Structure formats: C-alpha cells, structure tokens
Amino acid sequence: MDLFSRSWTGLRTAVAELPDEDFERPSGCTGWLVRDLVCHLVIDAQDVLITLVTPVATAPTVDAVTYWKLVEPPTGEDPLDALIPRLAAAYGEPRWLKFHLDDVGSAAGRAAALADPAVRVGTRDEVLTAGDYLSAYVVEWTLHHLDLIAHLPSAAEPPAETLAATRASLEKIAGAAFPAALSDMDALLIGTGRRAPTGEERAVLGDLAGRLPFVLG
C-alpha cells in the first residue's frame, strides 16, 4: 500500500508541476504526446476505482507478479491506443487534464488507502487480492512516470524506492535478473525497451540482451 501511494503521488505531482507547453511534447509511449499519456492515467485511475469496488468470492487466479504477462511490442493498431489522443485533444487546455487527473487520481489514492489488502477483486477477467492488485500497479505507475519524463529532463523522477520495487517485479515477471552494474532506472528503461542499451551496457547484459525487451501487458 505504501509503495502504491508513493508511486502514484510521485506521478501525479510530476504531472501537476508540468508547464503547459510540455503537454505537447512527445512522451515515452510511441505515438503519444505527454497529454495523451496523462489522459491514459485518468483512465487508469478510473480502473483502480472500479476494481477496488468489484469484490469477488472466487479464489485468486493471479498475484502481483502473474498479473502481468510478457507480450509483443505494441503495433499502434489497438483501438484504445488510437482513441486516447482524441480524448486528450478534447480537453483543449492542459489545466483541464490536470484537474481531472487530480480529481479522479486523488479518489483512487484514497480508495487504495482504505482498501482491505485481503479482499479479492476482479479485473481483466482475473481475480486477485486488493493488496496484490495495488502492488502490480506500482509497476504501472513507475513505468508511466518514466514515460512522462522521457523527453523532459527537468521533470521529477520516480521515487527511488518505487524504481527498486519495479525492477524487482520485472525481474520476477521475466524470470531474469539484471546485472547489478545497471541502475534501477537504466534496468527498467532498457529492460522494457524504452531505450536501447549502449555497447557497454549490452556487454554487461551478456546473453540477457538477446531476450529484450520485456514488454508487459
């Protein structure tokens, strides 16, 4: 719960502090501007609220690690991916996107803080505990925080503890450990295909380089 709060608060704060002109810059999500990514975060916050009030009585089918699947890199043909830029453009001014994210995002944060970690919830045709669901979302928030600041060098980075937790989660999901020589941020950026490794980093990665990227879905 604590890591969920830290990762989500850090991401929302980073968005709130962005000057308006940064909303028209590219994000780390291929084909999306920063404004499109922020619109996606609004939808993510809505998903958190919906999931936390969707209790189920059946046994869990996944946990915080198996919630994520390794998938092929996106092609840009997903209908929702194409819809997001149109939704984002409809807001008109960045201040309305900021307002909506703060409004829904704050509610999602409060719901997470009040949730019983042992309660089982349903989402994506799976069942898991609320605690595992919120732990899985630390990965979502942290990677999207990296997407947010991909071309914004002055923007705040994700909290160090959530970077470390997300690296540990990615290693469990992929069944592979990144070399200790790579920082948590570099391991996540390279490991998920958000940037290519340098020649030196590729040498450090060794055989693992041939398995990259690990794309989560």
Largest sheet: 2 strands, antiparallel
How widely separated are the two ends? Answer: 22 Å
Order of helices and strands: HHEHHEEHHHHE
Q: Determine the strand fraction and express it as a percent band.
A: 5-15%
The whole-angstrom Rg is 17 Å
Helix share bin: 40-55%
Return the average pLDDT rounded to an integer: 95
State the shape: globular
**Number of beta strands:** 4
Query: Structural class given helices, strands, pairing?
Result: mainly alpha
Treating each run of at least 4 consecutive H or I residues as one helix, how many helices? Answer: 8
* Poorly predicted runs: none
Question: If strands are numbered along the chain, what order do they take across the biggest sheet?
Answer: 1-4
Description of the structure:
This protein is mostly helical. The protein is 53% helix and 6% strand. The protein has eight helices and four strands. The protein has helices at 2-16, 34-52, 79-90, 94-114, 130-148, 160-174, 184-191, 199-205; strands at residues 70-71, 120-123, 126-129, 215-216. The strands form two sheets. The protein has a two-stranded antiparallel sheet with strand order 1-4. The longest helix has 21 residues, at 94-114. It is globular, with a radius of gyration of 17 Å.
Brief summary of the model shown:
By secondary structure, this protein is mainly alpha-helical.
